[in-house]
Write a structure and sequence with these properties.
mainly alpha, 68% helix, globular
């Protein structure tokens, strides 16, 4: 399985060459360029493109082929940073209920962390892109409902919290798993002075605790916008 690691991002790197591992795949650069044309005129859209470039072009892409913990950072950047930025840059016409999109995005996130699905995604290019598109797309739909200007601030805050809690629960389960779950990361972490289980535990902790930071930022954003609406109505 190790030989198949990083089908899109390349083989799992060793520390000595990680800063040489930029991903300049033409189709990826074209997709990012088209996205920049579509949403890049807004600050949120430009930031979203920058975050996605960090995830897919920078050496983080290669590192995520070696370390599960790096893959977690990659996923957090997509679903908790890039997706809400895209939702601000490309809002829907109506706020809608976040409940359905929450269930879908949660199911997608958890399904791709099922070991057979995860290992497949990192060993097959079609499955890899299915993972990326469904993670980003479902998270975008969720944040589009939560961050819509027409959404009540209290409702938005509740769903930001619920969105974090489901990710934290998944992170806790991965942190306390008694054994390493992902065959695709059975060897490469050793080059980085991690055991496979230690790498998985670090990934779970990142998903459990630091991943809460972007959710806290978005919660503050929703609360601030709600307060501004209240004070404007009282003026």
């Amino acid at each position: 399985m190790e030989a198949l690691q990083g089908t899109f991002c390349g083989p799992a790197p060793v520390p000595a060459d990680i800063w040489l591992r930029w991903n300049l795949d033409p189709s990826l650069l074209l997709a990012l360029g088209l996205l920049a044309l579509a949403v890049g005129r807004s600050r949120a859209g430009a930031l979203a493109v920058a975050v996605l470039a960090t995830a897919f072009v920078s050496p983080l892409c290669a590192l995520s082929a070696a370390l599960f913990s790096a893959r977690v950072i990659h996923h957090v950047l997509m679903v908790a940073v890039a997706a809400p930025l895209l939702a601000l840059a490309w809002p829907g016409r109506r706020p809608g209920s976040p409940s359905v999109s929450f269930l879908v995005s949660t199911a997608v996130l958890w399904a791709w962390h099922w070991p057979p699905a995860y290992d497949l995604a990192l060993s097959n290019k079609a499955a890899y892109w299915a993972m990326q598109v469904t993670l980003l797309g479902s998270a975008f739909a969720f944040w589009r409902a939560v961050l819509h200007r027409g959404q009540a601030a209290g409702t938005g805050l509740l769903w930001v919290l619920v969105g974090y809690l489901q990710m934290a629960l998944l992170g806790a389960l991965l942190t306390f798993a008694p054994e390493a779950l992902y065959a695709i990361h059975a060897v490469a972490p050793l080059d980085w002075n991690f055991t496979p289980l230690g790498d998985q535990q670090l990934g779970g902790l990142i998903m459990w605790v630091p991943a809460g930071l972007p959710f806290a930022v978005w919660g503050g954003f929703v609360a601030r916008r709600g307060w501004q609406a209240v004070t404007k109505g009282l003026a």
